[in-house]
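Before surveying the methods themselves, let us examine one representative protein, pairing a chain with its fold in token form.
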Amino acid sequence: LPSPRRHRVVVALLVQVDAAHLADKPLGKMSGGEQQRLRVAQALASDPVVLLCDEPLLSLDPRHQARVVELLDRRRRLHGTSIVFVTHEINPVLAVTDRVLYLLDGRFVLGSPDEVFRGDVLSRLYGSPVDVVRRHDRLAVLCDAPVAV
């Protein structure tokens, strides 16, 4: 049986990811987003020094994406946890990102978000014209990809 302290930690994490109501629900009856929130809580329960997050926002609605990002960022700030975040959707994490490793077909660019998310940088990486449009804390990467006929 878990210790009382561990139980409190788990309950607190379930509340933080908006999943306390799922504690007794069979995993097979949960939606993809519900399962994903539980995975985030499970990863944090071990009090990691380094946390590798592989698509942790997958299947989450925007409200839960924001909640998970805020939880992970708070964890980073308060506990010094190093977080490596693998994602195809940068907008939910852009405001809390300090370094970016952008990978494409064996090539990469490494730097701050301002250094990496630039049209000239991504155009070189993609080998075709790319525009980066910024609005508030969001961006769009627009690529003129060749169309197969």
In short: The chain has a mean pLDDT of 91. The longest helix spans residues 62-79. The first strand starts at residue 50 and ends at 54. Residues 112-149 form one domain.
